[in-house]
Request: fold
Amino acid sequence: MLRVLKSESLPIRSSEDVVIVRQAVRIQAVSLGFGLVDQTKLVTASSELARNTLEYGGGGAAQIEVIQNDQRSGVRVVFEDQGPGIPDIAQALTDGYTTGVGLGLGLSGAKRLSHEFEISSKPGAGTRVSILRWK
Amino acid sequence: MERIPILKMGEYLLITLQVDMHDRLAIMLQEDLTDQIVKHRSHGVLIDISALEMVDSFIGRMLGSIASMARLLDAETVVVGMQPAVAITLVELGLSMTGVRTALDVEKGMLVLRTALSKARRNGAPGVEI
Amino acid sequence: MASSKNKLAEVIAKHEQQIATGWLERQASSMRRLSGAEQQEVTRQSREFLKAVKTAAQGDGTGDVSSPTWNPVREFLVDFSAARAKGGYSSSETASFIFSMKQPVFEALRAEIGSDSETLANETWRATELLDSLGLLTTEAFQKTREDVISRQQHELLELSTPVVQLWDGILALPLIGTLDSARTQVVMQNLLDAIVKTRSDFAIIDITGVPVVDTLVAQHLLKTVAAARLMGAECMISGIRPQIAQTIIHLGVDLSDVITKATLADAFALTLRRAGFKMVREQKDQRAAEN
Reply:
């Protein structure tokens, strides 16, 4: 049973907002007692996705949540935009890995740095990416 | 508007990254640096990232761009002071920093530059070493 | 319905002393012999707990132990179970704290309700339900503490089994023993990188003589570690490649071309010394004899 203990919503409309989102995620991770490497992984993944939201999604928002289930607690960050969407997610994930640039890199990178990763996107219907890191 | 200061350290240039970089800052840095390399005819650039608690693909690409631009201007680049947590994360992220030399700190960085430059002078082309 | 739960509260309040006495006796008989200090502690805890149960039962008629009225009781049990788990008590010794309260409570109910057998049956049932849910809570809390202790010990074991050795000025060795999974790799990387910073080393040798299996995953972990060390400005080598490992690596198609590998730690050490600019000279025996 998943409980949401805290929730914070931040806009992503400029590159300064990306910085603010990073700092907010860091604060949440620190307050939950994450180790330094775990903090860095979470903040870096968030930075990748926040940039994607800004550069490819035309701007959007990030929701930072403190999550708890029976055994452990963690931080979940959900990025949402109303942009053009991603036509082929699987392709984007592989491309990012091979070309090392663009939207796919951020996605595949964020996925590798997180314990849980979910994405839903449809051309013309925006994109929603959720990452979670347990303590 | 804030700009990242570029210090002249003997025959090398030293940049210390401290703030959370955003696009405009990165572009200005690249412009300023290329100007300074030419102005001082420097052959070595040290980028101190010991204050950065995070390096994502944007910053990684920026570092790679700086190294490439500098090389075109006959200058070698070393990135120094990466924090352990950042190094572990970068490796996990899968960002290959090939083409960017790294060293533990400024002192070791200068040693790396000296070796790279003497090799370049001997071979007539910049040594490519990771 | 609400009033009958408070019947239990009434009974506990009225017979508190007898219940406490009977309860302590039953606890003593179900456990090993306690020292004087331990006995005092148990007595204090029992009285405190009984009071908390009485108060909660008075405030809440439903007996739903998850409701806020029962918070003090639950908190007490969590702390109590954790303390018992850490103190080396067994799971049943801990749970018997609750279950040995049943008999004295039933006796008190019988003394109070006596001839009304239907009410007595209902109240006895409700008391049983209440104590059972408290007992389960105790067991869960006990379990969780035990699991926390085990996971902490596992972590400490992990740390201890990945020592970093300084072979020479600026040269580190990391002898790996056992399997290299992703959890261990994280610890290995952290230890190695911290050591590189602390000793300002330029070279690190990862010796895998003691690693029984090297498959694609293990190879990836090794490559990650090498890459991380490189980002810190240290050159990494892998030594201890056994013949079977060499065959496996080639068959799996793992690309280790970017890394210097040596069959033995000694070979790797000799190479790093040379690269670090050291030169080893062996004195001639007769020379030394002449000097002496």
